[in-house]
Amino acid sequence: YVLTVLIAIGIHLVVTLMGTLFFIGRYSPITFFTKMFPAIATAFSTDSSIGTLPVTMDCLEKNVGVSRKITGFIAPLGATVNMDGTALYEAVAAVFIAQVVGVDMTITEQLIIMLTAILASVGAAGIPSAGLVTMVIVLKSVNLPLEGIGILLAVDRILDMFRTTINVISDSCGAIVIASIEGERLKE
Q1: What is this structure's pTM?
Q2: Has residue 125 got a pLDDT over 90?
Q3: 67 φ, ψ to 5°?
Q4: N or C end of the chain: which has fewer CB within 10 A?
């Protein structure tokens, strides 16, 4: 389960986020990680995208060169509703719980999990372990037992560190892509 979540987050990071950053934002992923490292490290250590927000905004403005107007709009919006790491985690967790309790899921149920995880993650707070709270919505959408959440508690902290980090990276990539589309000159 843990390995599956980490691999999925890694694929999302490399393919989706860095691909978007490089091909649409025209920004080097290596430069991105160098300039955004303080925000990434803060996200990993605090498990809070809201708590990381001041550091993220500071890195975007001072290190990357994204304008204050774009940073001031995109970063708080992303920290509030862009929880792609959480959505990914909740979908994998729901399928894992179904496997543990011996429930065979149809394609329709898997699609319901996917859509519910996306919608539930938008409502998740940017605080530590908020994904566990919204997991109730995902499990209830396909009638899986809520007791399955207890299985996840032992490893939730470490996975929360990774999903929060991916959320902050995603918010930052979004701000850089918007700045690039708007024609802003970013620091390389």
Answers
A1: 0.94
A2: no
A3: -65, 160
A4: C
